[in-house]
Each structure stands twice: as structure tokens, then as C-alpha cells.
Known about the structure:
The protein has helices spanning 2-9, 38-49, 55-64, 88-91, 98-115, 119-148, 161-171, 174-180, 196-230, 232-238, 240-250, 253-258, 261-265, 270-279, 293-296, 303-322, 329-341; strands spanning 12-15, 19-24, 27-33, 68-69. With 343 residues, the chain is mainly alpha-helical.
Amino acid sequence: MMGEEKEDEDKVLHTTWFGTFIIQKKEVLDKKLFSKDAEVIAEKKFQMEKGEILEEEKELYDKWGEVYVSSERLTELGKLYQGELRYASILKEYSFNDSLLQEALLKLGSKKIRESIEFGEHMAKAVHTAQDLNEIINIKLERLRDWYSLHFPELEKKVKDEEYVELISKYGSRDKILENEDIERIEDHTGGEITEKESELYKKFAKGIKDDMEYREKIHDYVEKRMEDYAPNMTALTGPKLGGELIALEGSLKDLAKRPASTIQVLGAEKALFKHLNKGTKPPKHGVILQHPYVHRAPKDKRGKAARIFANKIAIAARLDYFEGEYKGEELKKQVEEKIKKL
């Protein structure tokens, strides 16, 4: 209890996509909201992704002095806050609308592409854009469910996310969905009736989410095609998705090709590594490569060794692809499989 009370007394500098805040005891002590301009928000997010400290963050730090920070990006301003961050509810009232975030993310994606001149950089930006789209899709889908449940709460239990969005964008009302689609019949409807105006609002909202989902798929297709064309060794060994994520974490194929296998092994586990270096906790044995079957299907006590074997070959594949070496993707893949079998 004393530890929780002490954490509540800490002042924490915390930044979201719409502003930066000083928070204490679940109360906003001070804030610097960003301009409600999609271009400005995109630029702020771009700066943060590059690890830069924003002017608003510097101003609040200069004003309040010693504070904790909620991100490793800000650790030159203060110590990283180790408590649980529960700020979403108290910051909600300051948030801008979702359409502004969506517009900013699209501008951010365009900005990333304009800034990129090398394949690996294009790849990194595309992967980050897809991750940003995941964020906005999840937010909007949650809002749609919450709103549509007033009319037809039973639907979300009957269909998956994509079909849920498709049905609402196509028909809007519950009656039209049940009249035109062959889904499991629902006898008792607990939702209220709606007007034609509300039906149209539902349809447009769902259509926007559907468009975002389709655009996300286009980015995934782009990543897969570009990986196959320009990083064939990485693609053969890791698959296009994981290969693209590794490149994104480093920022470019060039940077990834320069990294030792030991660094590649723990890419994506930066928080755990930071805790290890600062608190003496156990070092991470793997980062995002855990998602690959070579690693996650290995027995738990062997995953560290499997990750090391896999990372060694990824380092070779990245160097072959960047320095235009010969294709050895299948050979590297076979070598990994043979070594992991021996575990």
C-alpha cells in the first residue's frame, strides 16, 4: 500500500497523440495540447518516432522541474516511471476526434514515404503505417460496437470483425441485415429502433472502418511484394511480415545489415533490456522473433538457444540482401531447421 501511495505522489510527464501532460494522483496538473491540425499532429508523431523530444515536453519539464517520464524517449528529462500507467480515462476529455487522428496518420504515412529514399526505409515506414492503422481501426471499431449495441447488440456475438463492419456498412439497420443475410436467426432483439438518419450514420461510420481495413491490407501486400523483390533472403528465412518488422525496428535494411546477431535477437524487447540494464532483472532472450515458429514452438527452456540460432542466420540474410549478395535463402532456412532440430 505504501508503494502505491508513493507512486500516486509522483509527477509524470506523459505524451499522447493530442498533447503532453503532467499527471499526479490521476489528476492533470498541467498540459500542452497540440494544434487541431492534422499536419501538425503528423509532424509531432513523426518527431516522436525518430526519438526526438518535443518543444511542448521541454516546456513542461522546464516549468515543473524534477518529474518522471512515461517513455524511454524522454529519459534524458527524467527517470522512467515504473508504476502502472492508468491515464487513459482522465485524458479522454482532452482527446480530439477520431477523424482528425485518421487524417494525421494518413499524412504521417505520406510524410514517411517522402522522407524515404532507400528500400529498407520505405519498408520501415510502411510497416509503421500499418501498425498506426491498427491503432485507429481498433479505436473506431470499439466505438462502432459501443454505438451499434444500442440498436443490435446481438450481432457482434454472431460474426467476426470484418463481417460485422461489412454488414453494417451495407445495410445499416438490424431489419435489413436479417432480411438479406443468411446468419443465425436471432429471435429476441434487445436493442432499440432507429430512424433512417441513424441507419445512414451507422453505414458511413462502418464504411470508414472498412476502407481503413482494406488500405491496411494493401500495405501488407506492398510489404510482401517489396520484401520478395528486394530482400529475398530475409523473406525466405523469416517470411515477409517478420522481416518487414525487423527492418522497421531498425529503420532501414542498411541499419539492420550492420547489426550483430545478438542485437537482432532482442529487437523489440527494448523495455525488458532497459530494465535489465537499470534494475538487474534477467536479460531478454528474444524480441519480435519469438513470433516465428522456429522460436515459439521450441520448448521454453530452449527458446533462448533457438532465438540465437535464428538471429545468426537473419544477420547473414540481411547482409546478403543489402550488399547484393547471392541468393542463399533456402540454404539458410535449411541450416536453421537442422540446428533447431538438434535442440
